[in-house]
Design goal:
heterotrimer, A: 364 residues, alpha+beta, Rossmann fold, six-stranded mixed β-sheet, B: 5 domains, four-stranded mixed β-sheet
Chain lengths: 364, 744, 290
């Protein structure tokens, strides 16, 4: 097991820059998730790690070993494809054994390891079938098994769950995490699904437009998004953004002022916010997660007053769609509150994020 | 078979070669197995004999081997490939020492350097009648073949229909017997539409096919009268107007013709159950003379290497000797060319052929003779179909003959060409060097290296064995004449073709009209192939189709059976008188009381073309069907199901899901199919043969006619081939432009 | 649509499908039945028949064609059988060599971008456009120079190379329908690119390869001009050459030719029967669904 590190990696297809200097480090035994919207370069990065594409410049290392120009087969990796890519002409057993046979492992070892993995994944009764005769979930498990059986230094996953239905997806997600905790093989997992990213990752890399926007544990990234993009990308429902500017009241008090068209501006006093990066009059975007608000005990001094629009009951919580300063705004409240459309709400913001409107960088 | 090859060990080597071939892995390894060396003194003899003639030849050769100890390797070849094989092999020294063919090819063979004077192989000239000797004499004297046997047509008579003692002495009287014959029987059957058989009539009227100064002779009063005479015979209903060789045989054999004009070969088809005899062809009262058929002399010919070998000439003497001639006469019942071998008195058939030989006219062996057949056949057909008066038809035939025999273009200086070629090569090289210096190109080349590794052997094989011969072939279009003595003419061949050799540009048979016919032919075939092939493929791949395997196998049958025979079966079905289509029309008339007339399919362009297209569609649809079946295997079912869920109708699913998905496999197949159809001369040759009047000929059949029936004008044929290529290349470019997605 | 409606319409459809196919089978078989009738007829009385029934049925034509022998080494050798074997072996080898040359090239054309790709494709197509009328003699000279005249190897190479352009086009189309993921999975599993091609792509393209192989086989199997020109030994001849010898200068033994043609087509049918079992859908299924 090795650490994976990538230095200043560039990839160009013709004239198109897909990766523009990516750096990342996945510690030995960690489960890294690359997440980002489609077209951000995460799959390309994974393919560079696998060796299926070659980098235009930059370096990839597995542990101490530079692998940048090695062929996939020399990197000691295993990969689970989005389409599973099971060999249609081989049985499940042969699919699992394929990589081992290529490495000329002795027959007894192949047999033993295939059976072990098949047992682990519940594939034993299916070993003689061809992929054609398997269900979607079974195919996915074979694809996983094909990677596991090889005992590689690094696992690569290319959106392996995107073709499963929701229930199965959650189940397999847990299974992947549990298996990783048992084996501790360094893994790189690509997804556009933030729930997968949050739940699976030891370390998470948010990619946007060919660059890593932020990395860290899911909790860090979620709590302290470094950019407006990361803040908006993670979290469901996604963060509310309001155009605003900063005003300095006195030495230590800063106010966020949200201008509205027809009513007096909304002013929110900053508390517990590091002031190092704040400047008077700076145009900013105020970010508030829907979950970071609670009903104000005293409506008179509440941060926001608003009228509930469409209310959706999602079991433990209610999602309230409304508008603030003529912009759509969502908040999640406890289900017991039984909020109805048209109800007047006064809420306090428990936690807020400020981003420079020009650069999108967090002001924290 | 040489003794060395009879050793079992040698056969084991051959077995091992089989296995190598079967595995197909080390095919090249068989090159390393030495070919059984041909001993220096082994004689190679090629012939196209069949049946008893071949058997007698084998016996005679075996005798000679026993007596002299020389080894002779006999090779029996298909007649269709005989001349072209000689032409390919002899100049390279790979040909036979000695071969057997009709004397009429001598002029052509001499021209191409395939034969040599026979020298002392002939033995004594006293043993041959002067007429026979003239047949093998060259224009500057000298004997170029050793005569073996004589062939001409004579009159076969069914003795159960006509009393042999009362055979009329004139043809008119014979034809007049028609009413006395049983219902449905003809008085006389012969290949009325062929110039070979007609030559006997022409001879009676004093005409010839080729004048001594090598001009077209089938023209003028004698020729016209001979045609008018045949016309009247056919009009009287006593002679079928459209019998080919097989039909003459069948009519005579089944008693539907009381007499037939045919050669010795008919006797082999008759067997012992048909009561017949043979007599000399009767006189034609209108011509006041006997019918005079062509006489051909089958002769042994020596290749330039063979003539130098003493033992080859000895073999020739043995095979042409008196004893050999007697054996041939006895067993193969051929008429000997020698005057010291008399046909047995108790054999009226042989006697009749021998007598006929003495009145027959020796077919000219000049090269020009080979150019008479096509115009003459065409003229006869035009007249017999009633399209033209004999005078007009014959005059146009003479024009065609003169056109084919036009003087070759003057030599052109190759210097400007060489300069242009050199300059192009130089510029090309410079451009290549410049590109190679460009870093972008270098990067691209480096990136291409892995691909080249997969391509190198295909590039090598195709360049060597496909591209190189094609380029050399294309280059011959700039030359005229045979390879060793031909000369450079530049673009004269192309100029001739594109200007219709000075004739009207839009006349039948001119390049431009043939292009139109070819395009129509290709388009119709392509559409029908695709419609039928894809349609059947789709129906056959229905999920719950029962008997699918059986249907598939039955439906590829048209492709599995050799097309040569099936094309002729189609031609037979379209026969005006005895074809199955006519049978169907009779049947319909009988059932519904209609009065549909049998169709003379090959008399009109539209029907003849339809017959060609029907045959080719039949031959070609299995290909498209199989391609479709293969392509359909790649269509995933869920895409279809998704479309069905989306509310797509059956037609929409076909149109928007299935067809686009099989398109990548279908487009190249359709494109290649179209190209092959464009060049499909087989069907045109075998079904309509270009009838009527060459209107159904397509470009490639023109090319083949120039190469093989019009005195081997290879340069001219190659020019046609190049033009075909240019046309096709332009057309595919055009289709790519028009149908955007149709790129390969 | 109610269920019973759906069922009856699909039954109707099935009847319709069978009707269409039977019509096509009739169209395909009718001329062949004439050939069969010709091959089996003892005599032929010309009359406009509609049904191709043999007259005085006899097997003598078949016997006469197939029962040829040659004396080798004092023992009778079944010459026809030998020549049939020649045909089958030459054609099989043609198919194998043709496919062996064409598959890697087709793969490169389907998967790689490289300098000269479109020029190469155009050249391949161009070779098919040029009628062979003028290139027979150059080819003969070339084979003579290579020492491949009068050998099955030479014939096989000629046939195989002439089928290569078609095979390449056909296989390239097939390879393009195979998901790239399969090869990538194999490469990650430890195969080289070529290993992935051989172990994964080729097996997945089996139906297309079978069909293409059949084409190459047929190309060689019915050809006679080249075979007659290149081969100069009776025991090397392929069957089309042998059959063509029934066509003479003045007349032809059509009944024998027909009989021979029928025998010749039997191995093709058998081969197709084997090949068509590979024509099953779903061989490329291995991905998400299918």
């Amino acid at each position: 097991m090795v650490a994976v590190s990538v230095n200043n990696l560039h990839k160009q297809f013709g004239r198109t820059q897909v990766l523009k200097g990516v750096d990342l480090h996945v510690p030995d035994g960690a489960f890294a998730v690359l997440v980002g919207p489609s077209g951000c370069g995460k799959s390309t990065l994974l393919r560079l790690l696998s060796g299926l594409e070659t980098a235009t410049s930059g370096e990839i290392r597995f542990g101490d070993r530079p692998v940048t120009s090695l062929a996939p087969r020399d990197r000691d990796i295993a990969m689970v494809f989005q389409s599973y890519a099971l060999y249609p002409h081989l049985t499940v057993y042969e699919n699992l054994a394929f990589g081992l046979r290529l490495r000329k492992e002795p027959r007894s070892i192949i047999d033993q390891r295939v059976c072990e993995v098949a047992e682990m994944l519940g594939l034993t009764p299916l070993l003689k079938r061809r992929p054609k005769a398997l269900s979607g979930g079974q195919r996915q498990r074979v694809a996983m098994g094909r990677a596991i059986v090889r005992r590689p230094q690094v696992f690569l996953f290319d959106e392996p769950l995107s073709n499963l239905d929701a229930a199965l997806r959650a189940q397999v997600r847990v299974e992947i995490r549990r298996r990783h905790e048992a084996m501790r093989t360094t893994s790189v997992y690509v997804t556009h699904d933030q729930v997968e990213a949050m739940t699976l990752a030891d370390v998470m890399f948010v990619l946007n437009a060919g660059c890593v926007e932020q990395s860290g544990t899911p909790a860090e990234v979620y709590r302290h998004p470094a950019t407006r993009f990361v803040a908006g990308f993670l979290g469901s429902p996604s963060m509310n953004f309001l155009a605003a500017h900063l005003e300095k009241r006195s030495n230590d008090t800063w106010e966020v002022v949200v201008d509205t068209q027809n009513s007096p501006p909304i002013r929110i006093v900053l508390e517990d916010y590091p002031t190092a990066n704040l400047r008077d009059g700076l145009a900013i975007e105020l970010g508030v997660r829907p979950h970071d608000m609670t009903l104000a005990p005293d409506p008179e001094i509440a941060d926001l007053r608003l009228t509930a629009g469409l209310c959706e009951l999602l079991g433990p919580e209610i999602q309230v769609h409304t508008q603030v300063a003529e912009q759509p705004f969502t908040l999640c409240l406890e289900a017991e509150l039984n909020t109805r459309r048209g109800e007047l709400l006064a809420v306090d913001i428990d936690h807020l994020h400020l981003f420079d409107a020009a650069t999108g960088a967090s002001l924290r | 078979m040489t003794p060395s090859r009879r050793v079992p060990a040698a056969r084991r080597i051959r077995c091992s070669r089989w296995l190598v071939g079967l595995t197909g892995v080390a095919c090249l390894a068989t090159v390393l197995v030495p070919k059984p060396a041909t001993a220096d003194d082994e004689i190679v003899l090629w012939h196209a004999y069949r049946g008893e003639e071949a058997a007698v030849l084998e016996q005679l050769v075996a005798e000679h081997e026993r007596e002299t100890g020389t080894e002779v390797e006999l090779l029996r070849l298909p007649y269709d490939a005989f001349a072209s094989k000689l032409a390919a092999a002899i100049p390279l020294g790979e040909g036979p020492d000695i071969f057997i063919d009709s004397h009429e090819r001598l002029g052509d063979f001499r021209h191409r350097g395939l034969v040599a004077p026979v020298g002392d192989a002939l033995g004594s000239i006293k043993n041959y009648p002067p007429k026979v000797l003239t047949a093998v004499t060259g224009p500057q004297g000298g004997f170029w073949g050793v005569p073996l046997s004589l062939k001409s047509v004579a009159l076969y008579v069914r003795t159960d229909l006509l009393d042999p003692g009362e055979i009329p002495s004139t043809l008119e009287a014979l034809v007049a017997l028609q009413p006395t014959l049983p219902e449905g029987a003809y008085a006389l059957a012969y290949e009325a539409r062929g110039a070979y058989a007609h030559a006997a009539f022409l001879g009676a009227f004093g005409g010839t096919m080729l004048t001594p100064d090598e001009q077209f002779g089938f023209v003028g009063p004698a020729a016209e009268r001979s045609l008018e005479f045949v016309q009247s015979m056919i009009a009287s209903g006593a002679v079928p107007g459209d019998a080919d060789g097989a039909l003459v045989t069948n009519l005579f054999r089944s008693g539907k013709a009381a007499t037939a004009i045919s050669g010795p070969w008919l006797a082999n088809d008759l067997g012992s159950e048909v009561p017949y005899t043979v007599v000399v062809l009767p006189n034609i009262a209108a011509a006041d003379g006997p019918m005079r058929p062509f006489l051909t002399v089958e002769a042994l010919m020596l290749s330039p290497t063979g003539r130098t070998k003493q033992h080859v000439r000895a073999l020739a003497r043995h095979l042409s000797g008196q004893a050999a001639a007697q054996l041939r006469q006895q067993r193969a019942r051929t008429i000997s060319a020698r005057n010291d071998v008399e046909p047995p008195t108790n054999d009226p058939v042989l006697r009749a052929f021998a007598d006929q030989a003495s009145t027959a006219v020796v077919m000219p062996s000049a090269r020009a003779m080979r150019s008479t057949w096509e115009p003459a056949n065409r003229a006869i057909r035009r007249v017999l179909r009633g399209q033209m008066s004999p005078q007009v038809a014959l005059e146009s035939a003479r024009k065609q003959f003169d056109d084919v025999r036009r003087p070759p273009p003057p030599p052109a200086s190759p210097t400007p060409w060489l300069i242009a070629l050199g300059a192009t090569l130089l510029l090309g090289a410079l451009a290549l060097v410049r590109r190679a210096r460009d870093p972008d190109t270098q990067a691209a080349l480096r990136a291409s290296l892995p691909a080249y590794r997969y391509l190198v052997h295909a590039v090598f094989a195709v360049s060597l064995l496909v591209l190189a011969p094609l380029l050399v072939g294309a280059a011959t279009s700039l030359f005229v004449g045979r390879p060793d003595t031909g000369y450079f003419v530049g673009l004269a061949n192309f100029y001739d073709i594109l200007t219709a050799r000075g004739g009207p540009l839009l006349a039948t048979g001119s390049f431009y009209i043939v292009v139109l016919v070819t395009l129509l032919w290709t388009l119709l075939n392509l559409v029908l192939h695709l419609a039928i092939g894809v349609g059947l493929g789709l129906v056959l791949s229905r999920p719950a189709m029962r008997l699918r395997g059986l249907y598939r196998v039955l439906l590829i049958l048209p492709w599995a059976v050799p097309s040569y025979v099936t094309a002729l079966a189609w031609r037979g079905m379209f026969h005006r008188q005895f074809g199955a289509v006519t049978g169907l029309i009779h049947q319909l008339n009988a059932w519904f009381g209609t009065t549909l007339e049998p169709i003379d399919w090959f008399a009109r362009f539209s029907t003849a073309f339809t017959a060609n297209v029907a045959t080719n569609v039949w031959l070609g649809f299995p290909f498209m069907m199989v391609v479709t079946l293969g392509a359909l295997t790649a269509v995933p079912r869920d895409a279809l199901e998704a479309a069905e869920v989306d509310g797509a109708s059956r037609w929409q699913r076909l149109r928007f899901v299935t067809l686009p998905m099989i398109r990548p496999a279908l487009v190249p197949a359709a494109m290649l199919g179209a190209i092959w159809t464009f060049n499909m001369f087989n069907v045109v040759f075998l079904v309509s043969g270009g009838e009527p009047d060459g209107t159904t000929d397509i470009l490639v059949s023109e090319a083949y006619r120039w190469a093989f029936t019009r005195e081997a004008q290879y340069g001219y044929a190659a020019a046609y081939a190049v033009l075909i290529f240019v046309l096709l290349a332009g057309l595919t470019r055009l289709t790519e432009r028009v149908g955007k997605g149709a790129q390969l | 649509m109610t269920e019973s409606n759906a069922r009856s319409s699909s039954a109707l459809e099935s009847i319709l499908a069978h009707a269409v196919i039977l019509l096509a089978v009739g169209f395909a078989l009718y001329p062949i039945l004439w050939v069969v009738s010709l091959a089996l007829s003892g005599t032929s009385d010309p009359s406009p028949q509609v049904l191709p029934l043999p007259q005085e049925p006899t097997l003598s034509n078949l016997r006469e064609v197939a029962w040829t022998s040659q004396t080798v080494d004092g023992a009778e050798v079944w010459l026809f059988g030998h020549q049939l074997l020649n045909s089958v072996v030459v054609s099989l080898a043609t198919a194998m060599v043709g496919i062996a040359i064409a598959t890697p090239a087709a793969y490169a054309l389907a998967r790689f971008e490289f300098v000269g790709k479109s020029a190469g494709l155009r050249t391949l197509l161009a070779t098919q456009m040029f009628p062979a009328v003028a290139s027979a003699i150059p080819l003969y000279i070339l084979l003579d120079a290579l020492g491949l005249l009068n050998s099955r190897t030479g014939l096989i190479l000629c046939y195989a190379t002439t089928t290569v352009p078609f095979c390449i086009f056909q296989l390239r189309g097939a390879f393009e329908t195979i998901p790239v993921d399969l090869e990538e999975a194999a490469m990650v599993d430890g195969a080289t690119r070529f290993g992935a091609f051989v172990r994964v792509v080729l097996p997945a393209a089996r139906p297309a390869i079978a069909v293409t192989g059949l084409f190459a086989f047929m190309h060689a199997y019915n050809e006679f001009i080249l075979a007659a020109t290149l081969l100069s030994r009776e025991d090397m001849f392929t069957l089309p050459v042998v059959l063509q010898r029934f066509i003479g200068e003045y007349n032809a033994q059509w009944e024998l030719f027909a009989a021979g043609s029928l025998i010749v087509s039997i191995p093709v049918m058998a081969l197709f029967y084997v090949v068509q079992r590979h024509l099953v859908a779903g061989l490329t299924a291995g991905g998400v669904k299918g």
